[in-house]
């Protein structure tokens, strides 16, 4: 299996992330990482979603990307696997007061 990274710009509507995760689940993709953030402060109703998936078949993966792009609240989807991107992991730490 190889890893593929997809980013999507979506409208902040109720249930959009649930619908998209349902599509990934329906096609039996394992989600390794998911990050959602407000990418552009001036666009308060738009979020950027980045997903890293484990993929077996590239053709099936490209079909999924096309299906995600057809969703009403999705502005556009990009496969950024072969592009140079900065990967980082965030850890949330809780400081205990003694």
From TrEMBL:
InterPro entries: Acetalactate_synth_ssu, ACT-like_dom_sf, ACT_dom, AHAS_small-like_ACT. Its EC number is 2.2.1.6. Pfam families: ACT_AHAS_ss. Pathway: Amino-acid biosynthesis; L-valine biosynthesis; L-valine from pyruvate: step 1/4; Amino-acid biosynthesis; L-isoleucine biosynthesis; L-isoleucine from 2-oxobutanoate: step 1/4. The keyword Transferase applies. GO terms for molecular function: acetolactate synthase activity. Residues 5-82 form the ACT domain. Keywords: Amino-acid biosynthesis, Branched-chain amino acid biosynthesis, Transferase. It catalyses: 2 pyruvate + H(+) = (2S)-2-acetolactate + CO2. It comes from the Bacteria. The keyword Zinc does not apply. Belongs to the acetolactate synthase small subunit family. Catalyzes the conversion of 2 pyruvate molecules into acetolactate in the first common step of the biosynthetic pathway of the branched-amino acids such as leucine, isoleucine, and valine. NCBIfam families: acolac_sm. Dimer of large and small chains. This is Acetolactate synthase small subunit. It comes from Mesobacillus jeotgali. The lineage of its organism: Bacteria, Bacillati, Bacillota, Bacilli, Bacillales.
């Amino acid at each position: 299996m190889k890893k593929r990274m997809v980013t999507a710009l979506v409208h902040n509507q109720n249930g959009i992330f649930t619908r998209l995760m349902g599509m990934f689940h329906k096609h039996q993709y394992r989600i390794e990482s998911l990050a959602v953030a407000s990418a552009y402060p001036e666009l308060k109703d738009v979020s950027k979603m980045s997903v890293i998936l484990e993929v077996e078949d590239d053709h099936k993966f490209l079909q999924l990307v096309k299906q995600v792009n057809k969703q009403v609240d999705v502005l556009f989807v990009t496969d950024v696997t072969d592009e140079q991107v900065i990967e980082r992991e965030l850890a949330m730490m809780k400081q205990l007061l003694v």
